[in-house]
Recover the amino acids of this structure.
């Protein structure tokens, strides 16, 4: 039996992972400070799906973990003592670190939000590195990074260090990062700190450069509305496909940003959970800092918008794509070729095709139409950079 | 007349730069939170040179800036409002940012020190980026980074982006960083944040990757003991050559770490000040993030220890080199070839040779022997990683 501690267990990914692993017999513990709930409220939105409150959720999770010594705590990992106590109690074999502020636009709103993002993410991660060293140096840290750390370089993106030849000499070096928001900057900072900690202290970690996740349901939570995960559609916490689906469902135009020529890696929620499960089951060596690029395939934003439009029409929903001015400075139309071999080598095979996932998502969202309509003002981009 | 605001004006570099620029007719303002004084005390040491207290120093500096609207404030730049108010009052053309925790060993002592270093350095720098955008977007930010950001790659180190060819395609990318302490990590984080801010907001900045500075006196402060800068020799805040000089002067063995085969860039204090003056006089374009590798030449640590021994003997001081176990994980004996052309193009020519500077330093330190002896326990390395 593997003991897994999920930091950020209440979030979009943390909760489904907890349900999935619990049902598979892993001993799941977790902590959260409910930051996601608070910040989505702060930007004037709410989860489209109705999710249970903290106490009810963790009663349900305790039930799924019956017979295990699961620990669920509400605290922020920037509090070192609470984090250390939690790890001592949970005694994890693997720690999945999702406890971060996950929004690029939120981090760009102003100095308050940028500083909050840095403290929450970078100090939280730094505390975790030290707490692991002190409490559980043999545990495997599964850290959620982002494909957005790389930016959009004009050369292939390697998976981990890249072999570079320069002025006639060679070395294997960390891949150069070009993050596009302060949120993405914090992910880069975490990667730098973590790689050093593995080198110096023999910690083992997988740094997941994850693409954009979409969808709302996984098999482990189907048939039990109380196990549903959150679904955000606002400009800050709603990611591209999810936002498009929400727009289609309420009869609003689907709005890619700018020409929509941005290429990004995407994967359905189910695949994200399956991949993390695979990673937990295949830890790296002691002292190894392993980078995994985690996505199903690369898609063009405009093509995705059109695909959502098509699927919506198939469901009898009249949808249309209407691009809006890009609120961000980013390349629209660019080379993009990230390697993603390691998960396939570990046994990853995509759970379903993207159109099927989008269709499933929209059918669930149709039940949540009123809740989306109530916060529809939060969808249009207001944060510019 | 150029208005220069020095953040961290009370430190080893900040103070001599303030004296140097004031005497040359620049309008100098500055702020500091006296962190350096406090932390050196915390690690059980003190400046070898006797420096004036904050009030007396800034009376002296006001005197040198007579007729100017100089502003001197005591606060920490992690306080955004105080920073903004200071910049509004000082109206700088150039901002020299030295207000950071500068010690690798201190940052590696434990979680408390690592977190302090991150908050002080990364949040301080982030506040500065936002405050500049709000108050003085046209000012030139001269940010002190470190050659230690690069680590010791097996290929040449470029000065700014490097042209890389990979799998048959080319791009100009940020140079991969491999910092060797949490302190150096914070400098890398700052570089990432700053480069992005220049790109998005049109700020202009010079990120100085500085080598190890040594020495204690510059012409502008000679002949006036009240203008003397601090000189640290403890394991945390004393850099290699300075520590060697202090050891020689009090008759203790000169202790390079390990085999001493580490190669690093070095420069005398006078050169550091001259280079920063040059950089202030030659700002980059709006939106430009300029990287400058700032050092006189690359030296081998063991060779430097022998050089200090030789110079000491020439002054009649009986000194000897006795290597100690390396308290750090670092390469000893490695390729090291950082480009450093930009300062030479701006007109930098080394002020004097390294042996002369070491000799001058030791003669000054001989007057401070009692103060060094009082804290000599602080010299030996205790922080390991």
């Amino acid at each position: 039996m593997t003991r897994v501690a999920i930091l950020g267990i209440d979030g979009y990914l943390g909760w489904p992972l907890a349900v999935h692993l619990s049902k598979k017999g892993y001993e799941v513990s977790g902590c959260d400070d409910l930051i996601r709930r608070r910040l989505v409220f702060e930007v004037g939105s709410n989860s489209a799906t109705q999710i249970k409150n903290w106490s009810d959720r963790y009663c349900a999770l305790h039930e799924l973990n019956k017979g295990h010594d699961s620990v669920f705590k509400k605290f922020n990992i920037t509090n070192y003592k609470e984090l250390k106590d939690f790890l001592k109690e949970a005694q994890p074999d693997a720690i999945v670190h999702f406890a971060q502020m996950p929004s690029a636009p939120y981090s760009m709103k102003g100095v308050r939000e940028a500083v909050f993002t840095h403290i929450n993410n970078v100090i939280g991660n730094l505390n975790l590195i030290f707490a692991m060293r002190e409490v559980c140096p043999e545990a495997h840290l599964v850290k959620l990074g982002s494909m957005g750390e790389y930016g959009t370089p004009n050369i292939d993106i390697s998976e981990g260090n890249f072999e570079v030849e320069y002025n006639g000499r060679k070395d294997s070096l960390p891949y150069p990062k070009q993050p596009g928001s302060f949120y993405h900057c914090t992910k880069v900072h975490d990667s730098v700190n973590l790689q050093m900690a593995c080198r110096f202290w023999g910690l083992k970690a997988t740094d997941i450069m994850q693409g954009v996740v979409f969808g709302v349901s996984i098999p482990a939570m189907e048939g039990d509305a109380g196990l549903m995960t959150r679904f955000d559609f606002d400009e800050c916490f709603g990611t591209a496909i999810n936002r498009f689906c929400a727009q289609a469902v309420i009869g609003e135009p689907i709005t890619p940003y700018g020409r929509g020529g941005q290429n990004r890696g995407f994967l359905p929620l189910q695949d994200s959970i399956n991949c993390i499960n695979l990673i937990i089951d295949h830890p790296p060596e002691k002292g190894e800092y392993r980078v995994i690029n985690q996505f199903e395939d690369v898609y063009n934003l405009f093509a995705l918008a059109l695909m959502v439009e098509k699927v919506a029409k198939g469901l009898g929903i009249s949808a249309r794509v209407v691009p809006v001015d890009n609120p961000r400075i980013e390349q629209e139309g660019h080379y993009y070729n990230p390697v993603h071999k390691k998960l396939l080598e570990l046994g990853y095979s995509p759970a379903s095709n993207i159109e099927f996932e989008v269709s499933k998502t929209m059918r669930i969202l149709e039940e949540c139409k009123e809740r989306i309509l109530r916060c529809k003002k939060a969808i249009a981009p207001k944060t510019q950079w």
User: Anything to note?
Assistant: The CA atoms of residues 233 and 243 of chain A lie 5 Å apart. The first strand of chain A starts at residue 3 and ends at 7. The radius of gyration of chain A is 20 Å. Chain A has 13 helices and twelve strands.
